[in-house]
Amino acid sequence: MKIAKLTLAVALLSALPFAAFAQEEEASPLTWSVAGVSDYVWRGVSQTNEDPTLQAGLTYSHDSGFYVGTWGSGVDFGPGDPSVEIDYFVGYNFDFSESVNFDVMLNRYTYPGASGSNFNELITKTTFAEAYSLTVAYSNDFGGLDTDAWYVAGGASWGLPNDFSLDASVGRSLFEDDYSDDYTDYSIGVSRSWGLFSAALAYVGTDGSGRDIFGDVADDRVVLTLSLGN
After folding, report:
1. Residue 181 belongs to a domain with what CATH number?
2. I need a surface site. Which of 11, 32, 69, 101 has the fewest CB within 10 A?
3. Do you find a cis peptide bond into 29, omega within 30 degrees of 0?
4. Is 13 a residue whose pLDDT tops 90?
5. Whole-angstrom Cα Rg for the chain
6. In terms of DSSP bridges, do strands 53-61 and 45-46 run parallel, antiparallel, or are they unpaired?
7. Burial degree of 29 (CB within 10 A; 0-12, 13-18, 19+)
8. Count of H-run helices and E-run strands, the chain
9. CB 71 within 8 A of CB 89
10. How many domains does the chain have?
11. Which residues contact 36 (CB under 8 A, 6 or more apart)?
12. Are 206 and 184 in contact (CB under 8 A)?
């Protein structure tokens, strides 16, 4: 099924382009990340047939709030191509106030060897009090199939003792009726950073509609992420 080939988390679970959303002041305008994940899960659905993979990203951020970057990951949607996803993004990040941050990003998903599945998505993320977020994304060519699709998600991150954090999110994917049924994804997990190194463990999955659409790759599972980056 084409849609299974395109199934973008929980920010916690992958260095998806959303890593550019949480911009911090750095001595260098370049930020990078390299990660190993037990499963690349995007909006509740495995992109690697439930197998581990490597991921990497690089972002250049300007003092004005504009940024540009790229991010890549291994994928496995079955025999043949693609075996890699490479995303390119450009965006703008700014503070509405001391407690509200807004980010808007245009992301280009590409799949070398399967370019017919390439598509663009406009993604906005509003963060409140550094702990709560609302994400709204839209594509008019989802999966390269000339169809409209929306994604709406709420997330939160709370501090725990010993510098751990508790992270949770719930998202809803909305499609045209003749393309696919809508479905819900969710995630809850813990994470911690030690300098350049960070680790996260999360329980992720989808509702019954998601499992009906995608099958086993949308089942509930535990995902481990180990990453290195600035």
Report:
1. 2.40.160.40
2. 32
3. no
4. no
5. 17
6. unpaired
7. exposed
8. 1, 14
9. yes
10. 1
11. 52, 53, 54, 55, 225, 226, 227
12. yes
